[in-house]
Amino acid sequence: MLTNWLKIALINYKKNRLSTFINLFGLTVGLTGFMLILMHWNDEESYEKRNPKKDQIYAFQSLYKRIHFYGENISYPLAFTASEKIPEVEDYLLFSGSNIGAKMTTKYTTTFQQGGFATSESFFNFFPYKIISGNAKDALKSNTSIAISRQAAMKLFGTANAAGESIKFDDKIYNVTAVYEISEGNSQIKPEFIFKPAERFEYDKTQWNNFNYGCFFMLKKGVDPSVFEKKFKEILEQRAAISAKTSGMSAQQFSYLYGPNVAFLIPLDQLKLHAKASWFGAGDFRTIMILFSLSVLIVVLSAINFINLKTAEASQRAKEVGVRKALGGTKLSLMIQFFLETFIICVLAYVLSLALTELLLPTFNKFFNKEIQLNDWHIYAYSFAMVIVVTLLSGLIPAFYLSNFKAIETLKGNFSRSRHGVWLRNGILTLQLIISSFFIIGGLIVHSQVKHMMNKDLGFNGKQIILIYFNETVPKSWLRYERLKTEISKINGVEEVSYGEAVVGGQKSSSNIDYQKESINAESGSMDYNYLQFMGVKLLKGRWLNPNLASDTINTIIVNEAFVKKFGWTDDQIFQRELYPGFDNGKKYKVVGIVKDFNLKSLKYNVEPVMFFHYKQTPWKRFNVYNIQVKIKPDDIEGTVNRIKQLWGKSVEPGSPFDYYFIDQKFAKTFEVYQKQQTLFTILNAMVLMVALLGLFALSSLMIEQKLKDVAIRKTLGASDRTLVFGLTRQFLWITVIAVLISIPICYFLMDEWLKDFAYRIDMPVWPFVVSFLVLLALTFAVVSIKAYKATKVDLIKYLKYE
């Protein structure tokens, strides 16, 4: 019996070559997209999975309710107090810096080493790397201890057995206490060297409000993190009570104004993709889910094609069903046969999709900057499960439909003239066109939003400006900047030199700004006198900082529009107020200028309040000047950069890399994620349209073939080709109109939700909906009319000789 079923299946595959090809092609494309997105999701979820203590380690996060801001930082006293007063805490780990670069000198060589982490001493308790040389237990006990990776040891000493050796960096001698092997697998925490910033820890021990650290807590086995979160709330109240005493307000007022108000923990292995905020950079789970949903939608679309084509072929197989039922065939045996035919196509599509996935994987990896391989059994299992779902979805419906034919009706030959199954086919075709319409509308709106962001005025001009990093940990870093400014200004091709802390891709720091009982959080923007003019920022009111006024290095600031709006004042009111920044021990500041908002992060976010002041105004900023920015004349940009590079290598930081970037190019990188989304949507859009149109062509071919006798009769009675073509395509055009009208409110809702993520968004445009309507209508007419026109050339004698 099985052999007979297979023979029948092969005969039908051959007889309906076009629909067989379309089903196979659509399922292969859909399953390939599904597997690629699934691999991307699986890779993002795999971070930190190999840490043996991952079930006990949690990252600290907090919520500032007043401004609805999620933070990843903690102060030293909060972390220390939690470890002392919450018995469920086994250990804690602080981070004060990651991906640190430093010029290192040993008795063998001098080289620049990237990837350093500044942490507290319990690092190896949280991340138990294999120790090659030395001892992990007390590796960071001393203030002069340093642990290095095997790769760093080979680079610095030429051997992995480097415990006991010495390294000099930042004018300090460190002793190598351990050499470790970085664990394999995906991880955001892969340090090349680890040291303890002892002086910083010592200073911050009593600073409850200096939220300078990332933190992991290790809870005892079996402890529910909610227990920690409840008890930590009491410590936050203690911190508010201590801080409120010096601020002249109640603990409740202090907690409301400054926060954080809520603390919560996230498991280590969920940090990469599910964190609200992360010291190491949070992933974009929402985008992955959108892509995954769209990939599933394409598979569903392919299954819809399968169902539609199978039911459209019903008239060709009606007599087969009637004969087999007349000979004693059961409904169950017929269903199994038809289901088997579907399963063969689905399995073949699965095999082809595996091959296509392997072929596309290098391009996919390059696009997402990954190194994924098709070697995870989960991918095979989940994708095969999708095949089973598709087989059930696209196999059972046609099988049930075909097996229900009545033997008497089909053997009489009346089936082809009945309307049996028309509503099912039309309903499924409508669903297919709704999905196609959604992709067209969504793709056009995504394109419009990205174009809107690309063309928006940023409020500054970063063209021909390069930012060069230098080591700010050297003593009196502001004096180094001033010396460099003088030397670089003399280089041929340099137009102007300046320094600004608040810059695209630069370091970020913020502080509370108080006025009486009001308070906002604002970014700190220490700078040189000319920085805002250097960046082409517009002055709206007041004046610039003036090097001839002593007050402009003591207590004067310039603020942006967002700063004024955050306080709810008018421009004139802010010039009359005396403000108290939280970083300067109660010293009052006066606003002397307001500048137009300019965007430093991404156009996805609103411009935050920023206060600009001279770097000499406070020791906190004077000792942390970390870059120099150079505006280059346009006639010889490459030559000027090379001349600056030569000066850098000779007299500025010999042995250190010339680490620079162009400001405008750096900001352009903030668009990459949206440009990639646009590219992916375009690819998915093309795939959907291709699968949908091929399915529509095959379906229209089958349905028009069933009407060839009607066409022959009407043509004999004098109907013109135009009338016949319109008559054959009219049904499909009406279905398209209905599908687009149904898709419009669905698309509007979903795309409006997507646009809500952007601070600078377009108004919902009307034209994508109109374009979708016209494009689908035109494509439907073009695809169906090809077959309809061929039908008008039918051989009249062939179809009318028995009438």
UniProtKB/TrEMBL annotation:
Pfam family, one: MacB_PCD
Membrane topology, as annotated: Multi-pass membrane protein
Keyword DNA-binding appears in the UniProt entry: no
Residue stretches making up the ABC3 transporter permease C-terminal domain: 293-404, 684-794
Record-annotated membrane-spanning stretches: 21-41, 288-309, 334-357, 377-402, 423-446, 680-704, 732-751, 766-789
GO MF annotations, alphabetized: transmembrane transporter activity
Any one GO CC term of the record: plasma membrane
Matching InterPro entries: ABC3_permease_C, MacB_PCD, Macrolide_Exporter_MacB
Coiled coil start-end: none
Domain MacB-like periplasmic core, residue spans: 20-234, 433-646
Swiss-Prot/TrEMBL keywords: Cell membrane, Membrane, Transmembrane, Transmembrane helix
Name of the protein: ABC transporter permease
